[in-house]
Amino acid sequence: MLLIPVGAGPTIGGAGAVALVRELAPRLVVPMHYRTAALNFLDPPDAFLDALGAAVTKLESSEATLDDLLGTRDAPAVVLFAPPASD
Length: 87
Fold this sequence. Notes:
alpha/beta, Metallo-beta-lactamase, Chain A, four-stranded parallel β-sheet, globular
């Protein structure tokens, strides 16, 4: 599993994140540290997801089990969790 920042700013952006994913070839990729309603100074994950070109599972929750995420896929799974609700 690879938890990878994709929102640029003080960390890595979409293009650099794609290069790392391709080099490391993880079974599960979870983008993190990107623009949400509560965090608006980063880039959204869209450029990373588009450049990666993999199927993305967008969850309506911020929780899941590894068995649910990985299943029996041969290709890397990319999962975008729902951001926490902003209060």
